[in-house]
Every structure is written in structure tokens, then in C-alpha cells.
Design goal:
This protein is mainly alpha-helical. It has 11 helices and 4 strands, in the order H-H-H-H-H-H-H-H-E-E-E-H-E-H-H. Strands 2-1-3-4 form a 4-stranded mixed β-sheet.
Length: 330
């Protein structure tokens, strides 16, 4: 698809007729999300809702760009543009929307890339009509890109917090993004939205190819061992990363100082030389040195036979509970 699309700052729609100055990004996200709850009663998931918002918002902003003062040629056929949706309702609207998605998906260039394999997930024509009306009430091109970015990120985070969607493992929390610097950071569970997800985040500087390694030292921050975060009661916050950023000293990395030493074995900020890293099995960067308080001292564990007997006892008790529950269900 040809043409200048610089007038189309993409984001997520603000479903309100109030001036943007009178609303916070959080309030806007909540307004958008409230309509999502309505659609979810019809079986429309969070991901599907975001997808439909993307399609409809693209058409609305393209419509705005085709009018003064922009007067852009959007290459969207008149019979499948935003105006073609505004004048329809009921079964006619649903049928037209399905055909619109199919036809635009056949186009070449950016238009086809956006709508390829697109499908209508809002099967209730009344709700589809209401969503179109809400989007139609705003001039999206005039809204700041930062505002739309905040809204879109907020919706993605809410989508990620839905454990059924499985999307959480792909979302990096905003607090972590703000603290991205060059080093290796061991992260705990509870900050990414899929249960049990652990991660080592590697920050590096892009360098040209060389026969010798650019890396001299690798700094590692262990923010996993004995650190507990949860999505609801103790979420990761920007303040949790301030100590890490101070240790990293991005203003002058050559003056970094380790907090770990043989005299301070609990320090979480430690330097490894390139030679020490290469000497590890497969040059693994999954490095830790702090004692995990959640792990018992293996020297004090009972004999294997005692452990096995305890496990069997627990399993038998659990099995008996299942039998009782099954009996109650008959």
C-alpha cells in the first residue's frame, strides 16, 4: 500500500466523549475495559477484543486522514471504509463487517498486512454497532501518541493478567523496561504474568563484528533469590529497581562497584570476568551465589525411606479426599 501515513499515530481508542485533558490514562483504560466485560459475556476474549479494536480504530483514523487538513489517499475502497460501517446496523452491519475484513485482507501492501486472515469476533450486531459509535465519537489523529501508548499498554497488561489468555509470558512490565541497562538480571517469579515464569534478562551494547571479544566483564544482579513478588499483593514497582540502577551507574559504567565480596556474601551485585564466564559449562549465564532460604539444608533431610513414606502418606490422604468428593457428587 502506497501513500504517506505519518498522520496516523496508532494506539488504542479512548471510548469517551470527554476532553482528553479531563481524563487520566488509567481512567481511559478502565472505560475501554468496561465495554470489554460486556463483550466477554458473549464469549469475546480479551485478545479478540483488542484485535477488533485495532481493525476498527485503523479504519476510523484512516477516515480522519482522508479528510482536511490531511487529505491523504488511504487506498481504502469507499464501499469498505469507515463511512460504510457508520450507516449500517443489525444483520446488515454484521454481514458487511465480515465482507469488509475479507476484502481488505486481500489487498496488497500495508492494508493487506493489517487485515490478512482477519475475522469478526463480535457476533452480536448491537454490540458491534455500539463499539463503532463509541470509536466514532473521538478524533483519534488529534490525540497525543503518548496517551494512546499508555492506553494500549494498559490494555495489554490487563490482557496479560488474565491467566486464561496465556499472554502474560510475553509482556515485560513497565517498571522493568524503565530500568533496562547493560548487565544480566536474574528475575523472580510473580512479575511476568504466566505462573512460574523465571527469566534472566540480558542487556548489551551493539558492537561491530570483531575477531576478539568486546566483552571484558559481565555484571550480574541477582534479584531472584529470596525475592517474592505477586501480581496483586506485591507487584513489581519502579522503586524496587532503584538500587539496581544505582549499582549499574549508567552515567559512568567504569566506576561500578560490586556489593558482593567474601566479606559481604549477601551482596546482589557482582562482577564476573569474561574468562570466568567462558570457563563455565556452555558459558552459561544462569549464575547465582546467594543461599535460597526456601531450600532446606540437604544435610538435615531425613533418610530417603522416611521421605518416601511421608510422600506415600500424603498421596493416600489426598486420594481419600478425592474419593469422598467423588462420592458427594454422585
Amino acid at each position: 500500500m502506497q501513500g504517506n501515513w505519518s498522520c496516523v499515530p496508532f494506539g488504542v481508542p479512548i471510548l469517551s466523549h470527554e476532553p482528553i485533558s479531563a481524563m487520566t490514562s488509567t481512567a481511559i483504560v478502565n472505560k475501554v475495559w468496561n465495554f470489554c466485560h460486556t463483550l466477554r459475556d458473549d464469549g469475546v476474549g480479551y485478545g479478540d477484543y483488542l484485535e477488533q479494536l485495532t481493525y476498527l480504530l485503523f479504519l476510523k483514523m484512516a477516515d480522519e486522514c482522508s479528510k482536511p487538513p490531511y487529505n491523504r489517499d488511504t487506498h481504502i475502497p469507499k464501499n469498505f471504509n469507515w463511512e460504510s460501517l457508520r450507516g449500517k446496523s443489525g444483520a446488515e452491519l454484521e454481514s458487511h463487517y465480515v465482507k469488509l475484513l475479507d476484502e481488505l485482507g486481500k489487498k496488497t501492501g500495508m492494508l493487506g498486512d493489517i487485515f490478512v486472515k482477519s475475522q469478526n469476533k463480535i457476533t452480536d450486531p448491537a454490540k458491534l454497532h455500539k463499539l463503532i459509535q463509541l470509536i466514532d465519537g473521538e478524533s483519534w489523529v488529534l490525540l497525543g501518541a503518548d496517551v494512546k501508548g499508555d492506553i494500549y499498554e494498559g490494555l495489554l497488561q490487563k490482557n496479560a493478567e488474565d491467566t486464561k489468555s496465556g499472554a502474560g509470558q510475553y509482556l515485560t512490565p513497565r517498571a522493568l523496561i524503565q530500568a533496562m541497562v547493560e548487565c544480566v538480571r536474574r528475575l523472580p517469579t510473580g512479575i511476568f504474568y504466566a505462573q512460574g515464569v523465571k527469566a534472566n534478562v540480558l542487556f548489551f551494547e551493539n558492537k561491530p563484528a570483531s575477531k576478539t571479544a568486546h566483552t571484558k566483564d559481565v555484571w550480574i544482579n541477582d534479584y531472584r533469590t529470596n525475592i517474592k513478588h505477586t501480581l496483586k499483593t506485591n507487584p513489581l514497582a519502579f522503586d524496587d529497581l532503584k538500587n539496581f540502577m544505582a549499582c549499574d551507574n549508567p552515567a559512568d559504567r567504569h566506576k561500578r562497584k560490586a556489593t558482593w565480596s567474601e566479606k559481604s556474601p549477601e551482596g546482589r551485585w557482582r562482577k564476573y570476568t569474561y574468562a570466568e564466564i567462558i570457563a563455565r559449562d556452555k558459558a552459561s549465564l544462569d549464575i547465582f551465589w546467594l543461599k535460597d532460604d526456601s531450600l532446606e539444608d540437604s544435610a538435615n533431610l531425613p533418610e530417603p525411606g522416611v521421605l518416601a513414606a511421608a510422600i506415600v502418606e500424603d498421596l493416600e490422604a489426598a486420594l481419600e479426599q478425592f474419593r469422598m468428593t467423588a462420592g458427594d457428587l454422585k
